[in-house]
Design goal:
The structure is a homodimer of 159-residue chains. Chain A is of the alpha+beta class. Chain A has 6 helices and 5 strands; from the N terminus they run αααββαββαβα. Chain A is elongated and about 60 Å long. Chain B binds a DNA duplex (17 and 17 nucleotides) through α3. Chains A, B: It holds the Pfam family HTH_24.
Chain lengths: 159, 159
DNA sequence: GGTGAAAGCACCGAGTT
DNA sequence: AACTCGGTGCTTTCACC
């Protein structure tokens, strides 16, 4: 995978858009003392390069009744079944992300549910997939998301 | 936390905006056969209710040279140190999310790094936090994100 | 690669049904 | 609650630097 170099202006633009994709390009332009046209061209360039893959809303799932988060580690009967099981897992809507991992588990995923009862159903569905030997669940008591803005500044500025 | 009820139109609007926050309200209106003003009012309502917390870009971190993902389970010397350690963890920019969990680990977090060398540095920083007894790392060999669109449709439509 | 202005639209609030 | 409509302001393009 090619590594793409961004300059300081690109970083500043990303910083602002990452916090709010709807911030007007004219505002960005004012802050960075460049023209709105330039902002537009640079954003387009980052989109074309695939650095900006898309945009999405941040939804408050708790307000929608989904306040249960857990991580589930999956042990397979045989690692050759990894691909098959991963495909099945991705058919389950309540699994938000799945990873093939080294270490203790073969597959590791995050689930989002309404409550413990609902989570139980999801975990049973995972257990029922062919090739899954057993699962181990870690319930999240508190989620703490890192601040995106700081992430961008500190991580990517150094490149 | 109060549970907020969304109707079919709200769901359709969210579905479109979740795929692309910059899709014009006029396009949404055309597709749903309502007026752009109505789209505007409904989005505003969801923002005011806090359902829509914000918006963000999806960045291709791999293209920026950050292709390493791992999960780190943390064992504390004493659970009373949870809050303190969590605060320290959140100061580390490469930790994208941290959870207080039940089960095997006390705290559980996800890190994003350039490579194994870089990951090692981050894990050492975690190990060095006062109160951390030891850590256990699971390296992600493959990440598989669930499709957002399907998530919204299948999960929230039923409420 | 950047600018600035102009044309084309989108947003958004007010007033109406 | 939803619609129309008009003012305001944003995006996007393009000729020029």
């Amino acid at each position: 995978m090619a590594k793409f170099r961004l300059d300081e202006v690109d970083h500043q633009i990303l910083d602002m858009l990452i916090d709010n994709t709807r911030v007007p390009f004219t505002d960005i332009a004012k802050k960075l003392l460049i023209s709105a046209g330039t902002v537009h061209v640079r954003v387009k360039k980052m989109e074309d390069a695939g650095i900006i893959k898309g945009s999405s809303l941040t939804i408050d799932y708790k307000k929608l009744g989904y306040s249960f988060i857990a991580y589930v580690g999956i042990f397979l009967q045989n690692t050759s079944q990894t691909k098959f099981v991963l495909e099945r897992i991705n058919l389950l809507p309540y699994v938000t992300v799945a990873h093939v991992t080294t270490g203790k588990f073969n597959i590791f995923c995050k689930i989002r549910a309404k409550d413990t009862e609902h989570a139980k159903d999801i975990i049973f569905m995972l257990d029922d997939i062919d090739g899954v030997y057993r699962t181990e669940t870690m319930i999240s008591l508190e989620e703490s998301l890192n601040d995106k803005k700081r992430l961008m500044h500190d991580i990517f500025r150094e490149m």
